[in-house]
């Protein structure tokens, strides 16, 4: 999840520990300054479902790690990002100090925060199904009145636990003792640490750890595994399972298999310049901060070289494309399709609108004087000569049919010339970028078209071809004519050498502006059907413009093969 998405936040839901009213009021005031809706609950209260669903919400947690973990269970299933404010005494996870709240919200709501993914662990069984951000604990079921027994008897009869453990069906060992933890990196600073386990840095760390609890076998050590593995735990006696220390625990009978793995949905934690780093919290609270006390801090990192205007615009456009692509991909992944396999117009519209909203908000925040044009209507007016031309969901028909060939396309246009182009494919995660005079890239790597000039060696792409004339004329002469259903992807693929040329009878600025910049910077060529330079027409967005785009060497060969009277549009038959 990209921090730039947070500019579209419309409501803030706060979960707070008892005794933190003053801090909550500070949050409330900061939220009010930005005109957002605000609701607060004491930890443990029932939260209205509508407040914690939808992509426009931001969660705030005020308290210590205990409050944080309770809030995670409310927000994480809905993929709501969290801002954590440290009001506890040992807040490894709560990283924003109360005096940094106002500055933190200024960054968050202007899209300058970052969002880190924190792995959760999931456990399933016949009697258990849940997730935890710290750990799954499996130990002996407590029975009887241990206070009336000796310490040794209490240990033997009430705390001893035997567990068989497998990793992807491979036998990992028998654990005799108090039990085991399966913890995430975040949980490495909780019970796992006191049980002799190593500390993991939590953000963007996809590992799980099996930590033995007071084992009777001195040779057993913590085991670190990839979060994608399936850990199977089979108790040889009745056991109990708890998630992040929750009560009551779930009782598991002897022989029941428990499967533990990394959860599909992470916890999204918002960080700003006001946030304490996790390593600062660990080293300070565990007494490791020797280098700082001795004045041995590493030298400050060199400041990043300032970007020029086009570099900045391309960076912001990339962030906006990533941010918009996330909810589009989520809707694409989770839609309920009809028997015909076609997504409802309502869901397609939701994906388009959400993408458009995010892009316009991010661009408006960074470039308030620029105009934003989307699908022929002005989303945001501006006084500057620059216009952002966007297609929030290029390839909408593909999206509606479950086809992954759709993109988010963003271009900055100056004097009818695209000077920045960004095209992002949310499914393949390909990011094409270009800025005038700076070349074109695919996922950060420079791209260029092919140098093929022979038609019989070339792969062609076709967009809108109403009567199929282009297909009929070139299908046999070329190595094939393909139609992907996304003009921006077509242009990017020609720019990257994945195809040699693209034809489309009917183009509009939002269809092609971003792709044109990328193709031009890669070294490709564009004209209309008569060989005239292709012109982007923002003055008359209702007018269609034919487009022939190519690698360059093939261009004249294609033009020479065009019919003298042009392609019959067949519009009278549409």
Could you explain the architecture of this structure?
The protein has 574 residues and is an alpha+beta fold. The chain folds into 4 domains: 139 residues, Rossmann fold, CATH 3.40.50; 142 residues, Sandwich (Tumour Suppressor Smad4), CATH 2.60.200; 138 residues, Fructose-1,6-Bisphosphatase, subunit A, domain 1 (Fructose-1,6-Bisphosphatase, Chain A, domain 1, 2-Layer Sandwich); 119 residues, D-Maltodextrin-Binding Protein, domain 2, CATH 3.40.190.80. The strands form 6 sheets. The protein has an 8-stranded mixed beta sheet with strand order 20-19-21-22-23-24-25-26, sandwiched between helices. Strands 7-6-17-14-9-10 form a 6-stranded antiparallel beta sheet, with no helix packed on it. A 6-stranded antiparallel beta sheet has the order 13-12-11-8-15-16, with no helix packed on it. Helix 1 links the parallel strand 1 and strand 2. Helix 8 packs antiparallel against helix 9 and helix 12 packs parallel to helix 13. It is elongated, with a radius of gyration of 29 Å. The chain starts with 10 loop residues before the first strand and ends in a 13-residue tail after the last helix. The C terminus is likely disordered.
